[in-house]
Write a structure and sequence with these properties.
By secondary structure, the chain is an alpha+beta fold. The protein folds into two domains: about 140 residues, Aminopeptidase (3-Layer(aba) Sandwich); about 130 residues, Aminopeptidase (3-Layer(aba) Sandwich), CATH 3.40.630.30. It contains nine helices and twelve strands. Strands 1-2-3-4-5-12-6-11-10-9-8-7 form a twelve-stranded mixed sheet, sandwiched between helices. The chain is globular and about 60 Å long. The model has no long low-confidence stretch (mean pLDDT about 95).
Length: about 300
Amino acid sequence: MSGVNQIRYLTHRQIDKEKWDKRISDSSNGLIYAYSFYLDYMAKNWDALILNDYESVMPLPWNKKYGIYYLYQPFLTAQLGVFGNNLSLALLDLFLRQIPSHFKYWDFYLNHQNVFPVNGFDLYQRSNYVLALDNSYEALYNNYRENIKRNIRKCIQLDCTVERGFDAEKVISLAIQQMKIRDKETDDNINRFRKLYNSLSEKKMAATYGVFSGKKELLASAIFFYSHNRAYYILVGNHPNGKTIGASHTLIDAFIKDHAEKKILLDFEGSDIRNLAFFYSSFGSVEEKYAAIRLNKLPFYLKWLKK
């Protein structure tokens, strides 16, 4: 970084997307969610804070409700925050204090290199699980908990098979069925994701995996995205019939087997939910903390709105 640090607030149309994406590509904490094309698809609106000539950047996804501007975390966008190199507490503090005052409510996630205690801001930690795949499949498999191995054997004995590269709509359809809330906003989010998937698929940055029964019923499915030597377990669609026969276990095992001995980190995208955290850790993955923040600057008579 240069001696004098200047952080500018830029609206979406003012952002140089080429410089932005180069910064995300070259950052030590770069993630797919921060690319301009990802945000263009998944965020309703987004502006940004830029340090000097794109030395570090922070996307600001926002929306407006009842005339109030607020910062939020877009659908299927696990981590954002400050991206760059040589990140520090001082730099994160600088960025947070430059967020424009017209954003009266904040509720968003930062990333695994933004975990600092910043005075004056209520940052808290969330859990992610990641698994390095740069080992032999045999070594990776030996790190599974016994219940994972047992479920994989059960699934294979029932003549289930793993397929790759099938229509993503099958995954999306199952995922929608799993969602507890289905409303207009959910449909909008799914449509945004559908367009994002199509774009990434053309760039060879997306893949589908599925476990099918002997009768060709899709029991477990997932869409994976790729960037920054990470494979993101981004969208999961599971059928109730696959829950007790190890279909999800077999799907993840197949992905691990396909990518073993490669310099790839399998990113499970969570979770703070105890049962899911245990499931992901059962494959030998390790916890990776990331930061999040909530801040309510609404007038006292509007604080009940939250966002």
